[in-house]
Amino acid sequence: MLTPRSATRLALGALLLWLSACSTTPPPIDRATLQRQVTETEIAFAKTMADRDHAAFTRFLADDTVFFSGPTPLRGKQAVAAWWKRFYETPQAPFSWKPDKVEVLDDGSLAISTGPVFDPGGKAVSSFTSVWRQESPGVWRVIFDKGCNCP
After folding, report:
1. pTM of the model
2. What is the DSSP letter of 104?
């Protein structure tokens, strides 16, 4: 027969056992998979320019994104989308870009992509750097973007 004290001990022991089973370590981050995700995301982001799809471009922007596109940093999704709309209004894309390097933090939360920017004829005229944040598994949004007038 269980006494109140032994019942309490038994319940506490069961609780501790259950808690220890719940506190397993998360699986290791597969950086190669995350780099592939960011590369594919950057390629899809660039495709919005080729497809002339401003609405799709906007979906890649984090709400708190910062772009160094104009004379002062553009802060927030709405400001960036409004400023970049001009690049989507002509039938031919004024430029294109593609990633050539992607790195991801060990914890999988942030990534950086860099690569060339091309004029309509395909000549490298500049480069870009984008910082991406993983907002949910497999979903990356650009939080910082900066171009450089150096090929």
Report:
1. 0.80
2. E
